[in-house]
Amino acid sequence: MSSQRINLRGQVRAPLQVLLIGASAGGVEALLSLLEDLPPDYRLPVVCLLHQPDRNDSLLADLLQRRLKLSTKEAEDKEYLRAGMVYVAPAGYHLSIETDRSFSLSREEPRHFSRPSIDILFESAADAYGEQLAAALLTGANEDGAVGMLAIKQAGGLTLVQDPADAQVPTMPNAALALLKPDFLLSINAMRLLLAELDALLC
Question: Which residues participate directly in catalysis (predicted)?
Answer without folding.
Answer: 24, 51, 144
